[in-house]
Specification:
By secondary structure, the protein is an alpha/beta fold. It is built from 14 helices and seven strands. The chain has helices at 22-34, 51-60, 79-90, 94-97, 114-129, 143-148, 154-160, 177-187, 201-209, 215-229, 237-244, 259-273, 278-285, 289-320, and strands at 41-44, 69-73, 103-107, 134-139, 163-166, 198-199, 234-235. The protein is globular. The N and C termini lie far apart (70 Å).
């Protein structure tokens, strides 16, 4: 399987699918077997595992590789925007005109509002009659469970999920971390000006010890941030710790972080990746929006108390002097 680049047009970002773990080898064999098929696929996986990358790999290895790879994303978009895009497809857009050569990628279909799920089902039916573009959908959510609960249209689920593929999270295949890092360094524009980048033993240990809630994408972002912070040929353990926010306090074991600080740092990074969108961040964190708002409020309260305490100490010190 080729190492695809996960981006809006398939040309930016580094490979998110790489490795030699048993799960990735099995996934690679499945992709190779399905590439020539026109069967609809549902790709499941957490944020950052490389669902789009997998869809692009399937497209590039298929007979449709010279045709368009058309992606529609549903996460964090209004119903009006989605409806307009679906009608554009229905009105003989580029996709349907090129249907025999096209792959249609539907990103995060669980976000599609129920009233529009019937419209998408009709669009896919019309597309099928006009030449059958390859349909690949992705989700971070248990779509089958939503369909059984009546929260996702059963007809649409049947159209999308002829075959389901699951990309395992990085924490379950840590042995793939070196391959993911090396593939990133090989393909990333961040290392163009550095002749050869290596990681010291401590850096590899830090990467292996971390849980990677953002999966391969977070791993790549971490390496990129380490390079940007201090461009050099060797990435150290200290630099990785700084990027990940793994700063031990006096009472923590070496290399460990108090749980509250770790969770706050993770929430902050997730909000940043979601451009401050709290609803999207809450979904990716697996918590309710109100829970997220309470955590943000509590963190701000702690920070404010700390600031006031520091100001009081400064004032007392000044008075004594």
């Amino acid at each position: 399987m080729e190492c695809p680049r996960d981006g809006s047009d398939g040309s930016d970002g580094a490979a998110l699918i790489a490795g030699t773990s048993a799960s990735i080898r099995a996934l690679t064999r499945t992709v190779d077997a399905l590439a020539a098929s026109d069967v609809s696929l549902l790709v499941q996986g957490e944020y950052g595992t490389g669902k789009r990358a997998l869809a692009q790999a399937l497209h590039r290895q298929s007979a449709r590789k010279d045709g368009p790879f058309v992606a529609i994303g549903f996460a964090d978009r209004s119903a009006a925007e989605i409806k307009e895009e679906l009608f554009d497809l229905l009105d003989e857009g580029v996709l349907l005109a090129d249907a025999p050569r096209a792959t249609l990628y539907l990103d995060e279909v669980a976000w599609l509002p129920m009233p529009l799920q019937g419209l998408l089902a009709r669009v896919l039916h019309v597309a099928h009659l006009r030449g059958t573009p390859r349909i690949i959908a992705s989700t971070e959510t248990d779509l089958n469970g939503l369909a059984r609960a009546g929260r996702f249209l059963g007809e649409l689920y049947a159209q999308l999920a002829a075959i389901c593929l699951t990309i395992p999270p990085l924490r379950e295949r840590r042995e793939d971390i070196p391959a993911l890092v090396m593939e990133y360094l090989r393909t990333s524009p961040h290392v163009v000006e550095i002749e050869q980048v290596t990681l010291d033993c401590g850096a590899w240990e830090e990467l292996s010890a971390y849980s990677w809630p953002g999966n391969a994408r977070e791993l790549h972002e971490t390496v990129a941030a380490a390079l940007v912070q201090r461009p050099s040929a060797v990435i150290s353990a200290a630099r990785i710790r700084t990027v990940l926010g793994r700063w031990p306090d006096r009472h923590a074991a070496p290399g460990m972080v108090p749980l509250d600080e770790f969770e706050d740092a993770y929430i902050t990074r997730t909000l940043g990746r979601c451009n401050g969108n709290k609803a999207l961040a809450a979904r990716r964190l697996g918590i309710g929006r109100n829970t997220l708002l309470r955590r943000i409020k509590a963190s701000l309260a702690v920070a404010n108390r700390g600031s006031r305490a520091q100001m009081n100490r400064s004032a007392t010190s000044a008075a004594r002097s």
